[in-house]
Amino acid sequence: MNLLDFARGAVMKWSIAIFLFGMLWRLFGMLLLRRTHDYSEPRVHAAGLGALRSIIRRSWPRREFQARTAYGVTVSYVFHIGLAIIVFGFVPHILFIRNLVGVGWSGLPGGIIYFCAVITLVALVMAIVRRLTHPVLKLLSNFDDYFSWFVTAAPVVTGLLAAGHYGGRYEDLLAVHILSFELLLIWFPFGKLMHSVLLFLARGQTGAVYGRRGAST
Amino acid sequence: MSSDINTIHPLETEGARLSIKKPALRYDRQGDMSDGQRVEAAMRTFVREFGATSAIYLESCIHCGMCAEACHYYVQTNDPRYTPVRKLEPFKQAYKREAGPFAFFYRLFNLKPRVTADELQKWQELIYDSCTMCGRCTLICPMGIDIARLVGQARHGMFQAGLVPHELWAVAERAEREGSPLGATPKVFKDRIDWLSDENAVEIPVDRDVADILVTMSSIEIMKYPQAIVATARVLNALGEKWTIRLDGYEATNFGMLSGNSQWQKDLSMKMINAAVRCKAKLLILPECGHAYGAMRWDGANVYGKPLPFEVLHISEFLARNLGNGRLKVRNVPKSVTFHDPCQIARRGGATQAPRQVLGKLGVDLHEMTPSGDGNWCCGGGGGVVTIHRADELRYKVFQIKMKQVDDSGAEMLVMSCSNCRQTFDDGQAHFKWDKTAHSLLELVADNLVQ
Ligand code: HEM
Ligand code: HEM
Ligand code: SF4
Ligand code: SF4
Q: What is the predicted ipTM?
C-alpha cells in the first residue's frame, strides 16, 4: 500500500470519524448544561429576531470600532473568503466532496484558484505575524491559537506544492496534502476552529438577551 | 446604628465621590481561609453557577483581541493586561479543567494547571479595579461573547474566596447590615425627607399603606444629591399620582451585586420588591442610577423567582412616557446639551431613547457625543470602581476619554441620568479642574415644569 492510498483510505475514515465524534461531544457537552429561565418582562417580544440580527451584524464591527479593528478584520476576511473559494471552488475538491456526500457543482478555473491560494497564504502569514507581534495577541495566545493556525495554513501550502509539483512525486505531494487536511479535520473539534460553529450559538444567545431588552445586539 | 465596623471603615461623605475613607491599611482579603480554601471556594462558586450560556461563551473565544479595542482601560493605557477577556483567565482555566466537555483530558494531562490563590489575588485588580462591567467589549466581540456578564460571575467566585477590594467589600457589607452602602439608613433618610420637604415646601409621602407608585432612591442621591428627591416629588405631585416612598424598601443601589455576593444582591432587591408588593404598587420607579436598573429591571424577577407583579421603570422612562402623552408639561430650555448614556441603562438596559425623548420635549439643542447611545464610552466609575481608592489614578486616566467627548460635543450643558456617573464626573471635574459640570436629567425636567 502506498502513502496516497493510506491517506485516502484508513486515515481519511478515522479522521472523519474523530471529527464527527469530537464535534458532537463538544457541542452536547455544552448544550446539555442547564439554562435558567429569564422571568423579566421583555421590552421587545422577539428574542429570536434579536438572535438572528446579532448573528448577522457581528460579522462586521460597529462603526465606532471600525478604525481600531480595520487591519485585523480585513486580513481575516481575506483568508476566510480565500479558504472558502479554494475549498468549494476547486474542481478536484468538488469531486472529493461529491464522492463524500453526493452533491457537486461546477468549479472555477485553476488559475483563479492558484491566485486565491497565494493571497490566502499571504493573509494567513499576515495574521500570524500580527499574532506574534501585537502585545495583546501575544499575551492572549496559547498553543491552540498557534496550532489552529498551523493546521489551517498547512493544506494551503501543501496544496500549492502539489498543484505545482514542487519538491517530490505528485502522488507523494498529494498524499501529504491529504494528510495535512486530515490533521485539520482531527484538530477541528478540539480547538478554536470550532468558532465556525460556536459563533452561531454565542452570537445568538447574546442577541436574544439584549434583543429582548431592546438594546443593541 | 453604629458598630465597630463604622470605626474600622468610616464613611467618606464629604468629598466629590462617596466611599469609605481611604484605608490606612488595606484588607483586600476577607475572612481567614487558607489559600487552598480560597481557590476552592472561588472555583466551586464559579463552576457551580455554570450553565450552557456561560459555557458557550467561554468555549467560543478565538483570541482575536478585538475586545481590547473597546475597553477604556486598554485604550487609555495600551497595557495588554487590561484586555477584557484576559480578565477571566483564571476562571476560564478552572472551567476548562473542571467543567468543560474535555475537562477529563485537561486534568489527565494537567493541560491547564490548577489556579493558585496568588493568581486570584493578582486578578482582583483586573476583575474589580479595572472593569466597570460597562459591556463595551460585549458589543465589539465578533463571537458575541458577553464578557461583562462573565466578569460579574467571576466576582461571585472572588467574593466567596474573600478576595474583594477593601472598600467595595466594606460598602457592600454595610448595605447588607444597614440597608444602605453609604449611611443612608432609614432614620437618616427620614430626617432628610423631613428637612427637604420643609425647606422646599413640597409634599413627600412616606410609608403609605397603599399607593400606585413606589419610588426608590440611590444612596448617592440621598447623601450627595438630595435635590433628586425633591425633583422626583415635584414631578409625581404635578401628575397627581398616588405615590409613596417606603422606609422598608427604598435603597435601589445594589452593592451585593457589584461586589459579587448573590445572597446580598437578593436581600437588597427583595426589600424593594416586598415593599412594592405590600403597598400594592403597580409601578416601581428606579432612580437615576445605572446598575440599579440592571439589578431590578432585568434581574429583579429572576431574583424573585417569578415575574414581578408590578412594572419597573427608570425615572427617565417615566418622564419620557408622561411628557410623551402630554400629562407632564415643560418649558423650553434654549441651550445646547450633550447627554452621557449610563452603560447599564443604555447599552446593557435598552432604555436608550427615553432620555432623548425627554430632551426633545425640553426643546434643547442636542449635541450627541461620538460615539453615543449604546456605543457610548463609560465614565469609568461603574461596577463599584468609583469606591476603590487605589483605582483612582487609573480611573482618572480613563475619564479623560469622557472629557474629550464632552469637550468635542461643543455643548453648553452636560446631562446624564445616573447619580453614580454624576459623582464620577464631579470627582473627575475636581481632579482636573475641568470647566464642565454634570447635571441631572430629572432635575432639569423638575426645574422646568409647567404647573
Ligand atoms: C484549506 C485548504 C485546503 C483543503 C482543506 C484541501 C483539501 C483537499 C482534499 C480533501 C482533497 C481531496 C483528496 C482526495 O482526492 O482524496 C484535496 C485534493 C487536492 N487539493 Fe486541496 N485542499 C486545500 C487547499 C488546496 C490548495 C490551496 C490547492 C492548490 C491550489 C489544492 C490542490 C489540490 C489538488 C491538486 C488536489 C488533488 C486532487 C486529486 O488529484 O485527486 N488544495 N484537497
Ligand atoms: C462561517 C464560518 C466562519 C466565520 C464567521 C469565522 C469568523 C472568524 C473571525 C471573526 C475570526 C477572528 C478574526 C480576527 O482575528 O480579526 C476568525 C479567525 C480565524 N478563523 Fe474563522 N470563521 C469561520 C470559519 C473558519 C474555518 C472553517 C476555518 C479553518 C478551517 C477558520 C480559521 C480561522 C483561523 C485560523 C482564525 C485565526 C486567525 C488568527 O490567528 O488570528 N475559520 N474567524
Ligand atoms: S465591561 Fe467595560 S470595563 Fe469591563 S472589560 Fe469590558 S469594556 Fe472593559
Ligand atoms: S473579542 Fe471576543 S473572541 Fe475576540 S478575544 Fe475578545 S472575547 Fe475573545
A: 0.95
